[in-house]
């Protein structure tokens, strides 16, 4: 264990804009207690959730100051007295959900620091062949996508899968996993410059939703969904935006199609039209969070070179606030990783 008394950390002292984030070099370094380990953080990645944490969320009282960052990977440098099965130097990915206190980087200090104290039951061993940066990109974005598509068995080979918000962390994860499953992928973005990159990631079709109504596009491309046959429309729509995208998502689906939901970044109370649900026998499938088995399966895919997470850039801790600005303003494709 490092004998450092203090460390560098990205600290949130009060809610507000990104200028409330500060990289400090004198934050107290953590010590392991009986059921915890301390890891040397080698990589941590941002999620849009971090933007919400900085701004403050109604009904969630964050204990401030707090080191932000949900996703992290590193190596163990100190092991608590009651911890078994883990040793100093083990390479680990951290499941960001602490079973007693809540999310890392929100209810307790997270990964945007040189060191982090982590409950032993949050640790997931990293196989050889997976880098810290790749592992740190996984939990919130790819874990969510993996559970939604693979655990719930919602996508199969040959399906037409339309993905809204395709350029973000969850969206790029859905592209990669849907292609891994053999699906035809239609990626929706709101930025023309991002369209070519999404093609390079494997999307078969790319739509700029600021210029094209994706539901009308789907009907023109695949035909109008039919009530008494399975012609027309797409098989699956992945929608974690909600808001104004909900109703056109229903219009895009073929009879028996699936609408997959794991969030509502643009609004959780959208206009609904139940006629589509029964007329086309639609399936609305919710998916919440992720578990260790999702993270283990993803790392196995990486180790076997069957997938790679999409990392837009890797930044040092001193530039972490700029990294979160890029996430907040949706200027990246995939993940922003920080190496503290």
Given as residue ranges, the uncertain stretches (5+ residues, pLDDT < 50) are none
Taking the alpha carbons of the first and last residues, their distance comes to: 17 Å
The structure class reads alpha/beta
Tell me which oligomeric state these chains represent: single chain
Number of helices: 10
Structural commentary:
By secondary structure, this protein is α/β, with parallel strands linked by helices. It has ten helices and 18 strands. The strands form four sheets. Strands 3, 5, 6, 9, 10, 17 and 18 form a seven-stranded mixed β-sheet that branches. Strands 13-12-11-14-15-16 form a six-stranded parallel β-sheet, sandwiched between helices. The protein has a three-stranded antiparallel β-sheet with strand order 2-1-4, with no helix packed on it. α4 (169-180) links the parallel β11 and β12 (184-189). α3 crosses α4 (169-180), α3 (138-151) packs across α9 and α6 (214-222) packs parallel to α7 (246-252). The longest helix is centred in the middle third of the chain and has 14 residues, at 138-151.
């Amino acid at each position: 264990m490092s004998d450092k008394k203090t460390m560098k950390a990205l600290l949130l002292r009060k809610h507000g804009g990104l200028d409330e984030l500060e990289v400090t070099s004198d934050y107290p370094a953590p010590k392991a207690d009986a059921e915890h380990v301390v890891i040397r953080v080698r990589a941590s990645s941002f999620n849009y959730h971090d933007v919400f944490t900085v701004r403050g969320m109604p009904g969630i009282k964050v204990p401030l100051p707090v080191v932000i960052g949900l996703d992290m990977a590193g190596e163990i440098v100190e092991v608590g007295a009651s911890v078994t099965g883990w040793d100093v130097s083990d390479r680990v990915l951290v499941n960001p959900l602490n079973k007693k206190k809540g999310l890392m980087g929100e209810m307790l200090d997270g990964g945007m620091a040189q060191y982090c104290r982590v409950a032993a039951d949050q640790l997931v061993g990293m196989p050889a062949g997976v880098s810290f940066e790749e592992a740190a990109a996984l939990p919130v974005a790819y874990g969510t996508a993996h559970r939604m598509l693979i655990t719930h068995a919602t996508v199969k080979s040959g399906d037409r899968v339309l993905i809204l918000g395709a350029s973000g962390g969850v969206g790029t994860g859905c592209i990669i996993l849907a292609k891994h499953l053999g699906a035809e992928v239609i990626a929706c973005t709101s930025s023309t410059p991002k369209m070519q990159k999404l093609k390079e990631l494997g999307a078969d079709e790319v739509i700029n939703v600021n210029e094209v109504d994706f539901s009308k596009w789907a009907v023109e491309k695949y035909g109008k969904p039919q009530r008494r046959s399975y012609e027309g429309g797409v098989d699956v729509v992945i929608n974690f935006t909600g808001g104004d995208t909900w109703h056109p998502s229903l219009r895009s689906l073929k009879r028996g199609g699936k609408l997959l939901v794991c969030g509502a970044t643009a609004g959780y109370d959208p206009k609904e039209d139940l006629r589509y649900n029964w007329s086309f026998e639609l399936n609305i499938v919710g998916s919440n969070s992720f578990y260790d088995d999702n993270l283990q399966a993803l790392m196995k895919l990486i180790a076997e070179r069957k997938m790679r997470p999409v990392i837009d850039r890797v930044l040092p801790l001193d530039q972490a606030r700029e990294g979160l600005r890029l996430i907040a303003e949706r200027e990246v494709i995939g993940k922003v990783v920080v190496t503290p």
